[in-house]
Write a structure and sequence with these properties.
64 residues; mainly alpha; 4 helices
Length: 64
């Protein structure tokens, strides 16, 4: 996953960090509201189908 820089000296919550990283790495394919489109699946409700320890595999870039 590519890190998106945060504002220098700013402390952020996990939720804010997640939003920032989603905007940088996921939103262009999965949409602003996680709805997906075309070959990019929806992320809505994904936690019901894939356990958290398996979700990481989806996020890792190829070759890692």
């Amino acid at each position: 996953m590519i890190d998106a820089p945060k504002a220098p000296g700013k402390v952020e919550s996990f939720a804010t960090a997640g939003e920032r990283l989603f905007a940088k790495n996921c939103m262009s394919c999965h949409g602003q509201n996680r709805e997906g489109s075309g070959n990019n699946p929806t992320l809505i409700g994904i936690e019901k189908n894939i356990p958290p320890n398996k979700l990481w595999v989806c996020w890792k870039p190829a070759g890692e």
